[in-house]
């Protein structure tokens, strides 16, 4: 099975309360990271991995997301008439990245519920789930490695990343054992947001998953947990504990990840990405040094 036969699911129905009032009328996934909305980075990552069929799970007031990926003929004509070919190309590219579909989640009942809403679109094929507030640098490989591991083992595959043990309480932590492959572990269990002293490891689940369609049956019978939400972690825990199934594999990511779900980390992500860009970095980096030296 090639990446092109995979579909990607991007849950984007969250309320974005940490960014209020900016997200009162604008979806948090549309907040700009330098000069592109966060969700465009995720769609570009899927396209780069060969996935051209993407389902976005949206909530109320999320029409801006679908509008962004639509073509805007009047804007294209204006840019073409002005001879602004660079901006014209970027506008057209955002509309041509992939075949993008949308479905409403209805009530926001958790990540597991959002994934379940993709069932009719995904059908009987394996698929990727990509969270919009975790951005993976385009220079680092992750999703293609996860798809390859899924094809090799049939297991559910999660992305893991080492975090400071003092921060593990902010994530789902994985209990793992080594495999013969470097950077690949078998997940024995998952603990949602454990205290540092109770965490099985400092390997945190980050927002990339590759799943078989059998996960839908598990999500259908998964009872709501904390906050009345259906958790994807609970379904993964069941898969990991099944002695007769292919289980859960973790791919340990050691590349560049930008967390845009937290206000401070969102600002850091913008600075890091802008400083690396050829068009912005030469002017920005010296200023950053001066600014840092003044504190």
From TrEMBL:
A Pfam match: NTP_transferase
CDD domains: UGPase_prokaryotic
UniProt GO MF annotations: UTP:glucose-1-phosphate uridylyltransferase activity
Highest taxon above the source species: Bacteria
InterPro entries reported in the protein's UniProt record: GalU_uridylyltTrfase_bac/arc, NTP_transferase_dom, Nucleotide-diphossugar_trans
Family per similarity comment: Belongs to the UDPGP type 2 family.
NCBIfam families in the record: galU (TIGR01099)
Protein name, entry field: UTP--glucose-1-phosphate uridylyltransferase
Organism: Microbacterium koreense
């Amino acid at each position: 099975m090639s990446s092109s036969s995979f579909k990607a699911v991007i849950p984007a129905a969250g309320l974005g309360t940490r960014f209020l009032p900016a997200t009162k009328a604008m979806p948090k996934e549309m907040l700009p990271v330098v000069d592109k909305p966060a969700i465009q980075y995720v769609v570009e990552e899927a396209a780069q991995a060969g996935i051209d069929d993407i389902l976005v799970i949206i909530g109320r007031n999320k029409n801006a997301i679908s509008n962004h990926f639509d073509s805007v003929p009047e804007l294209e004509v204006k840019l073409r008439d002005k001879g602004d070919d660079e901006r014209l190309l970027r506008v057209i590219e955002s509309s041509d990245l992939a075949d993008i579909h949308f479905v409403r989640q209805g009530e926001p009942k958790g990540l597991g519920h959002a994934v379940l809403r993709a069932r009719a679109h995904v059908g009987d094929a394996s698929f990727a789930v990509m969270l919009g507030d975790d951005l993976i640098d385009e220079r680092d490989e992750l999703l293609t490695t996860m798809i390859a591991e899924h094809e090799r083992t049939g297991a559910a595959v999660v992305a893991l990343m080492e975090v400071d043990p003092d921060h593990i309480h902010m994530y789902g932590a994985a209990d793992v054992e080594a495999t013969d492959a470097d950077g690949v572990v078998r997940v024995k269990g998952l603990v949602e947001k454990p205290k540092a002293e109770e965490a099985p490891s400092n390997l945190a689940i980050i927002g990339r998953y590759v799943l078989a369609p059998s996960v839908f049956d598990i999500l259908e019978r998964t009872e709501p947990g904390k906050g009345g939400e259906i958790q994807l972690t609970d379904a993964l825990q069941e898969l990991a504990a099944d002695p007769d199934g292919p289980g859960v594999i973790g791919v340990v990511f050691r590349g560049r990840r930008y967390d845009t779900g937290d206000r401070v980390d969102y600002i850091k992500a913008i600075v890091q990405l802008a400083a690396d860009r050829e068009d912005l970095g030469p002017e920005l980096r010296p200023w950053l040094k001066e600014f840092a030296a003044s504190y």
